[in-house]
Amino acid sequence: MDIRVSAEEDWPGIFEFYRATMAEGRTYAFPENQTLEEARPWWMEQAPGRTVVAVDGPHIIGSAKMGPNRPGRGQHIATASFLVNPEHRSHGTGRRLGEYVISWARNEGYRGIQFNAVVESNHPAVHLWQSLGFRIIGTVPGAFNHPEDGFVGLHVMYLDLK
After folding, report:
1. Which of 33, 97, 111, 123 pairs as cysteine with 64 (C-beta 3.0–4.6 A)?
2. Confidence of residue 90 (pLDDT cuts 50, 70, 90)
3. Over 90: is that where the pLDDT of 154 sits?
4. How is domain 2-160 classified at the CATH fold level?
5. What is the DSSP string of 74-102?
6. From its phi and psi, is residue 109 left (phi > 0), alpha (psi between -120 and 50) or beta?
7. φ, ψ for residue 54, nearest 5 deg
């Protein structure tokens, strides 16, 4: 598996599993049923952020987007979001993308990384981020309407890079 900066021609391949992930309704509070063009600005970051893809040969198996969490006086803290093609989950793609984002944020001079909305019932993601050093610094109760679990909390998770 390789990770590289995404190109415009990667978007349709990313969109296939972006759309599938949003339709599952378990991990993102993004709009469902978006068209290819409606979804593009939700995932394809502009500078100073970036979007990357994890590729296995010619196949895009995952993607991450990253950049400053807030503009102006909050731009020293990064944020990121991750997607793994459902056919390639539980094979280390998310971990590799997470490690890439941490390295990128350090190299770019960010002081920390904040994830704003990790669904508390997404146990694999919570475990992954904690194994990479992130801590849960707060939980917004009932902020996510999960299709099976009902109203569950959204964790704010943080990794100090200083």
Report:
1. 97
2. confident
3. yes
4. Aminopeptidase (3.40.630)
5. GTTEEEEEEEE-GGGTTSSHHHHHHHHHH
6. left
7. -95, 125
